[in-house]
Design goal:
- Helix content is about 5%, strand content about 60%.
- By secondary structure, it is mainly beta.
- It has one domain: 4-Layer Sandwich (Double-stranded beta-helix).
- Strands 1, 2, 3, 4, 5, 6, 7, 8, 9, 10, 11 and 12 form a twelve-stranded antiparallel sheet that branches.
- It starts with a strand and ends in a 5-residue tail after the last strand.
Length: about 200
């Protein structure tokens, strides 16, 4: 299995006959004999996952990179963070996935937060299995520990991903943006209870 190496805003992947899936159009350079082709969500998602993705309004166009050599990936000069998964589930905003290693399954998850005007948090992508995921963020990713004693509440536009035994719920009427007259529709935040980690970015989408 190839290892993902993040160098601040660039992801380097050394391939020796393996393949990875990466965000469409994210290749900025490569050396060696590398083939690029369109790839679906993969991992058994198929048509059903594609339909769920369309219904959810999620955008996750992937390409498959296969061969011998090094591929460098980047997108919009965003920061890149590599997360290691060991038979776990990572829930992440779809547009913030830069690359995933082979063997990981991607699917759309409906969170059940209906009636949210911004659309953030309505549906996200789950990455399941053992491997590595490269995430994009506007600024360095900040991991926030969630314990059974203290929940974590975040702005939905700052949310990047989460992992662990967490329950996500909507806290309506609670948003710091409402105090400065920004945003439209009903203000809300995302609350996480349980045990796990929530990843946020220091900038809003």
């Amino acid at each position: 299995m190839p290892t993902l190496h993040a160098d601040k805003k660039v992801l380097h992947v050394d391939l020796m006959g393996e393949s990875i899936r990466a965000a469409q159009g994210s290749m900025v350079a490569y050396t060696g004999n590398i083939e690029f082709k369109n790839a679906g969500m993969g991992g058994g998602g198929g048509l059903r996952a594609a339909l769920k993705q369309r219904i959810a309004g999620e955008s996750i166009s992937l390409m498959e990179c296969t061969g011998q050599g090094r591929v460098s990936l980047a997108q919009n000069a965003d920061d890149v963070t590599v997360v290691d998964l060991g038979n776990e589930v990572l829930t992440v905003e779809s547009e913030l996935i830069l690359a995933v290693t082979a063997g990981l399954q991607l699917d759309v998850k409906f969170t059940g937060l209906q009636g949210v005007s911004t659309g953030q948090g309505l549906a996200t992508t789950t990455v399941t299995g053992t491997g590595q995921v490269a995430l994009l963020s506007h600024g360095p990713i900040i991991p926030l520990e969630v314990s059974g004693q203290y929940p974590v509440v975040v702005d939905p536009d700052a949310y990047v991903a989460s992992r662990g035994q967490l329950n996500m719920s909507m806290v309506s009427g609670v948003s710091w943006r409402s105090f400065v007259g920004e945003g439209s529709g009903e203000p809300f935040s995302l609350r996480f209870d349980g045990q796990g980690v929530v990843y946020i970015q220091p900038a809003e989408r």
